[in-house]
Amino acid sequence: MTKTVVQTTQLTRRYGKTTVVQNVNLNIKQGEIYGFLGPNGAGKTTTIRMLLGLIRPSEGEIQLFGKDLHKERKSILKRVGSLVESPSYYGHLTGKENLEVARRILGVPSKRVDEVLEMVRLTQAAHKKVKQYSLGMKQRLGIATALLGKPELLILDEPTNGLDPSGIQEMREFIKELPREHGMSVLVSSHLLSEIEQMATQVGIIRNGKMIFQGSITSLQEQSRPRMRFGVGDANVAAQLLASEGLSVSVEEDGIWTESLSQQETAHIVEHLVTHRFSVYRVEEVKQSLEEIFLGLTEEGETP
Amino acid sequence: MILRLLGAERLKMKRTWIIALLILGPIGIMGCMMINFGLRGDYFVRKYPDDLTSLVMESRMLLYLAIPLAGTLFASLLAGMEHQGSTWKYLFTLPVSRFQIYLGKAIPLFLLMTICAGLTVPALGFLWVWADLSGTIPWEMIIKSVLYPTLASLPVLALQLYFSIQWDNQAWPLTIGIAGILIAGGISKWLPWAYIRNVMPLDIGGDNDPHFWLPFAICQGVILLLIGATIIMRREVR
Fold it and tell me: Is the pLDDT of residue B104 over 80?
């Protein structure tokens, strides 16, 4: 059985009267890339800050590596690397000096600095002052700093925020390699499903502070029921016919849509249409894209 | 652990004003005193009973301003660089206790002040010779009149460090620091800024009493430091 790296129980955080995070049960297993998804302001960063001990939960428990965060903060944080929101850096120091500051505090060997610089491909810019870095480079330096202590768990909050498309792709490829090559587990948050979809093995979706879905990407896809599309000549009349038969159909620009049907039902509809001399030129099953599912999940029940 | 934090702190000071200030402070004090004695030396002979008193009394005026000002600036520079790069949140996710991180700022602050004081002593010694004051250089008295006020500034240092860490806009702690220097000492001898004057080894008709004020200031400094650390330790990091 794979070990659980992060486990929160009924994690709740309130600011005054507003509940920002409500009864969140996060579960991340070893070696996973866990995509933490949700629209802006859904409670992702608050949850992550609680995981790192930066803020305290109002209720609930946090266990990292099977240990209580509150009781064993130091020994747990030794095994965690993190990048929270905007990158942290000393602008007046060079990239290498920034890592050296962190290295001195963590007490890891000097050669580790060069290793992580190489990993994020900043070796070339190592002696440039960080205030001259581009945002992408600062972000990479942040990741290098997070990797310095050879963490078992890497927590990245919106690591691709503000990066250009090639930077995003590079970051994605980089994150994907971490579990394979270094045995790390990764928690990565984002408000973009397309991003998570391409790297995560598991996803947790949070909306208004509540976890509305947690599971594998494939099980998320199964959430969507496929629909049937009938390409028919004279769709409006055909739809009336089907409706009079008691079928729930809707007419859209590209044909008649119904909820998913069994093979028999499909055959029945086709037969019906053909006998009434409608020309049927396409019958297909259409699956919702993940993006649509995500939007459906996050918009559901949202008050306007 | 604390040594590792200090090592990191040392590296962070690279290319900052901190090092320049460390040298410029004592040089500035010496320069002011040279001008002071150069222009008003004859008057001092009539004003004070002897050369030693004139040196201590005149440096007192300057140290009363310079020590808390240096402390305010050092505290603000040490804390400000963490605010600037939003590195507090990073530091607080390291496997180090928050108390140690606070000490990792308090100790360098105190060391910087001590180094400044250490450099001011020979600077005043030089002044003694330069101004052609009578007798051998009174090292003991010079050390006391620099070291005592530096130690007595501990409460001010503790306050300034706390304010500088608490607020990311350094204009506030700087305002408090300067207002303290200009106003607080005049209001009451019990306010921390006044201690610097209270501990002078010599005074004319003043109420200086190093035997009382020095231990009092040091104890208060330590207590204020612990209070500041406790508040910061409990604070949530945004």
Answer: yes
Q: What's the pTM? A: 0.86
Question: Is A93 in contact with B14 (Cβ distance < 8 A)?
Answer: yes
Determine the residue among A21, A58, A104, A152 to mutate to test chain B binding: the one whose Cβ has the most chain B Cβ atoms within 10 Å: A104
Supply the CATH classification number for the domain A4-79+151-222. 3.40.50.300
For the stretch B25-36, what's the b/e string if a residue is b when 16 or more beta carbons lie within 10 angstroms of its beta carbon?
bbebbbebbeeb
Mean pLDDT of A192-204: 88
Stretch B17-22: mean pLDDT: 92
User: For chain A, which residues make up each domain, given as ranges?
Assistant: 4-79+151-222, 95-145, 225-286
Cβ separation of A92 and B8 shorter than 8 Å?
Answer: no
Closest residue in chain A to residue B97, using alpha carbons only: A74
Lowest mean pLDDT among A59-63, A237-241, B13-17: A237-241
* Residue among A82, A93, A107 minimizing CB distance to B93: A82
Q: What top-level class would CATH report for the domain A225-286? A: alpha beta
Q: Looking at the predicted structure, is the pLDDT value of residue B206 above 90?
A: no
* Nearest one of A151, A13, A164, A142 to A86, comparing CA atoms: A142
Mean pLDDT lowest among A65-69, B114-118, B151-155, B207-211: B207-211
Phi, psi of A115 (to 5 degrees): -60, -50
Query: Which string of DSSP letters, residue by residue, matches chain B?
Result: -HHHHHHHHHHHTTTSHHHHHHHHHHHHHHHHHHHHHHHHHHHHHHHSSSHHHHHHHHHHHHHHHHHHHHHHHHHHHHHHHHHHTT-HHHHTTSSS-HHHHHHHHHHHHHHHHHHHHHHHHHHHHHHHHHTT-SSS--HHHHHHHHHHHHHHTHHHHHHHHHHHHH-SSTHHHHHHHHHIIIIIHHH-TTSHHHHHHHT-S--SSS---HHHHHHHHHHHHHHHHHHHHHHHHHSPP-
Indicate if the pLDDT at residue A171 is higher than 60. yes
- Name the residue in chain A with its Cα closest to that of B237: A54
Is the pLDDT at A57 greater than 70? The verdict is yes
Chain A closest-CA separation from residue B66 CA (Å) = 27
Cα separation, A206 vs A212, in Å, equals 6
Chain-wide mean pLDDT for chain B?
A: 93
Q: Give B8's contacts in chain A (Cβ within 8 Å).
A: 101-102, 104-105
State residue A1's pLDDT score. Answer: 60
